Every structure is written in structure tokens, then in C-alpha cells.
Amino acid sequence: MNGPLFIRTLAAHRIRLLAAGSGMFAWGFVLPIIYATFGQDLKQLVEGNPLLSQFAQFGGGDVFSLHGSIALGFIHPFTLVLMGIFAVGFSTLAVAGERQRGTLEVILSRPISRHTFYFTLLVAGALFLAILLASHLIASVLSASLMGVLPELSLGNLPLLWLVGWLLFMCFLAIGFAASVSFDRLAPALGITLTIVLVSYLLEVVGSLWPDAAWLQEYSLFHYMAAKEVLDGGIRAGDVLLLGAVILAAVAYGWIVFPRRDLAAPS
Amino acid sequence: MSAIVTSELSKTYGGGRSGLTRQRATTAGVQALAGLTIEVREGEIFGFLGPNGAGKSTCIRILLGFLHPTGGSASVLGQPVVGDALEIRRRVGYLPSGISFYDTMTGEGLLDYLARLYGRGSPRRADLLERLELSSATLRRPVRDYSRGMRQKVGIIQALQHDPELAILDEPSEGLDPLMQHAFYDILDELRRDGRTIFFSSHVLSEVERVCDRVAIIRAGHLVALSDVEELLRRRRRRVEMRVDGPVPPLDGVPGVSSLEVRDGVLSCQLEGEVGPFLAAIVSARVIDLTIEPARLEEAFLEFYTADEPALQARPPSAEVPS
Q1: A14 shares contact with chain B (CB less than 8 Å)
Q2: What is the Cβ-side half-sphere exposure of residue B15, based on CA atoms within 13 angstroms?
Q3: Cβ–Cβ contacts within 10 Å for residue B323, how many?
Q4: CB-nearest partner of B94 from A109, A112, A113
Q5: Does residue A11 sit at the B interface (CB-CB below 8 Å)?
Q6: What pTM did the predictor assign?
């Protein structure tokens, strides 16, 4: 871990973090309001209509309960976009982007090992994700309190939800880093990471909306962040282990590959 | 002690350890460096010459640990070039060719940040800023507003501000105006006086001739010459042109004279080595005009690059200047 590099990374991304954090806060704030205001009406609307009922189960979330609405916030495309700024954008730019820009060799000509560089940026990325998810959950708690539905929320399970959400997006961050150390240019690293995220998301959404394709969900990383279930009854150890294993494998790949790579002159 | 030593240093892109790089697909099996053996002495300014693709940057990047050699060995400041080579980079300053910066940072912020990454002070910064005429007002502006020359000045300062024992400079005067080039040469002279070593890669032969003590010339990854600059120039052929009134003096057999040609009363030839025998041979002629062009490194460089490649490769890697 390199202090100046870490501080510089935080400073360089402060505006982006503020913007994404504000978005996550706003989104986390809105969902309990939607639940408290329209939840019961929407529930009556979809009841008796199998098609609408199925669509209301989008990604395991819904707006008919406080837990469901918070879970919906974790799987919604808006969240994916905001979290993707760091889980995908930051991670792929970390090495391949710096390589392409020509700044990597300026940094690595200093007495900083590639392991230190990799680890420092990984920690910074992990911190960004943690902050974004925390701002989202804090906003949901504030909003639920304002709307008078806080007693419906299992506050004790919120840290677990934060953890499982962080693990999910850490998977994508770690995959982004693994892709980033494997290429000299940003485009392939970004393309591969984005494809993995989008395919995983698609499998989860299709599986959740179409009962016959529910088996697809098992191949999606999003499936192992069962937000509503975590809020309802706690975390599944198997899910945590699987997400942890993916993170470990991707981080280990980058850890081994990056120092062995040749860093030719940027084109 | 030697500042840099390479022994049979080789690098082939596309094989083994570099298999994860993009070069695999585009330059599979290309030998960028072939058995390079050089020694850079402490306290000298060492010129490293060669055209694009000769292997200069490959060599520099191996010395800094960015590339892994596929053969041979290298050491910098007594430390072997292996793995991350942290101890080497702690003691070295590096200016890459066409250096890139974080454009949103100010010049001052950038220099502070890059100095902090060394974990030590910047004893030479103030002096370098003054000599290269970078004002405080300029340093407070974002780097994106800088001209190419100003960026290059910042690049030079970041490489030298921490007073490294060895500076590896790749095309350092690129983009500098003539006044700043001279200021830069003065900085190099001062570093040499202070016992620092400069490894200087450049295309500008006149500046290599001006500042370097010794030069190595590489071609297609092979060392084709390694010599003192003075020795290299002394042994170069100079072009001579002489206009005479009357008979042309007989110059056949005069030591050092070759390619003799007489046309319309103008004698032209090439002269190598001592001028004395040539002057003695023309002393009786009625010379109207005489021009002996000074030996230039450019001519030596071009000579090496117009020679047949197999002949050059047949030489031993540490070959001195061919006569």
C-alpha cells in the first residue's frame, strides 16, 4: 500500500465519487417513499394479474414491502450504472487506462512495486464501492424514518446487506482489475468486464421475470446477492463464499499476472 | 564502479515470458535486442543512439524493470535488473520519450506528487525551475494548458529534482527551444561535475556530440559502435574541397586521402586522421580556396547505418569504432 498513490487516487476521483454517491443517496431515499406512498395501491393493482405479478418480482425486489423496495434498489439498472462507474470504469482504467495514457510508466519508474500499485488501487476501488453502498442504505433508513415505516425495517440485517452488496460489486471490480492488467489498451479490458457484468445481469433479470428460465439465475453473480432475503432473514453462507471465491480468484490472477507482464512503450 | 552494465542482453517479443503482451499478436518472434553488451561508467554522460525500432527503448525499459529480458543480464548501480528492481528505481531518475502526465493536476501538484512517490525531498527542484524558466505562476496552472516545451521541462524536472545518482533520459530535449536546449545542456554539464551519471538516448546527433563523453550506436538490436565521442570524430572522414590555379597537386598515396576527384579545377576528396600529410602535399600548389568540413557525428552515424547489416552483426558486441 502506497500512501501518496492512495491519497492521489482518492483526490482524483472525489468529484466522480460525490456525483455517484449523491445519485445512490437519492435513489436510496426515493424507494421507501415509493413503497410508503404507492406500495399498497400497486399491490392491489398487480394482484390477480399473473403477468404483472411476475414483472413486479424484478430481480427479487418489489415495492410492496420496505425490504422489497430496498432490495429493488440494489438490483435496479440505475444502481448498476452508478456502481459500474467504479466497479467497471475505475477498475479497467486502473492499469490498462494508465498504460494507454502513458502515465503508468511515470508512476512505476518510482520505487513502487507493481504489487503495491495493484493493491493500492484495489483498496481505493473497494473503498469507493463501500462508500456508495453505505450512502444508499443510509438514505433508505432516513427516508423510511421520515415516512414512518422504519419499524418495518430489520436494522440489524442492514450491515449484512451492505456486505453482500459490496461483495457482489467487488466481484466486478476484481474482474475489471484482472482484465485491466491483461491488456495494454483500455477498450478490450472495458469490453470484457462490461460483457461479464451485462450477461450476468441479463441472466438474473430474465430468470426472475420468466419462471421457465429461472435456472439461468444460478449462472448470474447477482443471484448470490439475495437482498430481500438478507433483509428478511439473514445472509446465506454459501452466497458469501461464492462471491468471496470469485473475488479471490480474480484478485489472485491480477496479483500473479501483472508483475510478469512486459510493459512495452505505450503506442 | 559502473553505473550500468549489460551482458549479452537480449529481448525477443512474442516468446515465453512476454506472451501476455499485445506484441505477441503483432510482432511475434521479433528480436528487439540481440546480445547487447555495454558498460556505462559512473560520472559520465553516455549517449545511446539508434533510429526508431533499433532497440533503445527496449533496453531502457529492461533497465527499469518494465520489460523482462529473454537472455543475458543487466545491472544498474550494482543492482541486478530483476523483478521490480525497486532499489534501482529509488536511485534513478527517468524521463520517458513523449512523457504523459495527469492533465488536470497543476505543474506544482504534479511535481510534488511525483517527488512524494520517491519518498524523499527535491533538492534540485528550485534550481531546475529557475534554469528552465518555469515560474510559480506557470506551475499553478493545470498541465493540460502547457505547451509541448513546458511539458518537457516538467518532465526533465521530475526526473532530476530528487538528485538521482543516475538519470535515464529518453529524447530529453524534444520540444525545447534552442535557448532552453542550451540551459538543459548546462544542467547536464553540472550534473556531470557533481559526479552524476546520465544515460542519454537521442536522435539529435548534434546534441549528443555536444554533451556526451561516450556513445553507443545500436542497429536492429545489435551494438555497432561504442566509443569516446572525440575518438569517433577523430576517425571520421572529413570532406575536403579545394580550388587551385594551375596543376592539381598529386595526392595519390597521401595518408588518409581517399575518393579523390578532380573536376573543372576543383579537387574533392575525403580525409581521415591527421591533416598534416595532406597540407604538406598541397603546399606547392596555388590554392585559391580550401574547405575542410568538420567531422560530424551524423556522418559516423550514417556510415554505420548504410553498412551491410550482416557485416555489422558479425562484429563482436563490444566492438569499438570500425576503421
Answers
A1: no
A2: 10
A3: 6
A4: A109
A5: no
A6: 0.84
Residues B275, B252: Cα–Cα separation, whole Å: 15
Question: Using the beta-carbon criterion (under 8 Å), do A112 and B117 form an inter-chain contact?
Answer: yes
A263, closest residue in chain B (CA to CA)? B66
For residue A155, give the C-alpha cell. Answer: 436494522
A256 in contact with B at a CB cutoff of 8 Å?
Answer: no
CB < 8 Å to A4, chain B: 113, 116-117
Q: How confident is the model at residue B27 (pLDDT cuts 50, 70, 90)?
A: very low
H or E stretch covering B182: helix B178-193
Q: Is B249 helix (H, G, I), strand (E, B) or coil?
A: coil
Please spell the DSSP secondary structure of A208-224, one letter per residue. HH-GGGGGGGGG-GGGG
Strands B237-244 and B197-201: unpaired
Query: pLDDT per residue over B133-142, tens digit each?
Result: 999 999 999 9
Taking an 8 Å cut-off on Cβ atoms, the answer to whether A264 and B67 are in contact is: yes
pLDDT tens column, B198-230: 999 987 777 888 888 998 988 888 888 888 888
Mean of pLDDT values over A164-171: 95
Backbone angles phi, psi at B6, to 5 degrees: -120, 145
Q: Which residues contact A43 (CB under 8 A, 6 or more apart)?
A: A64
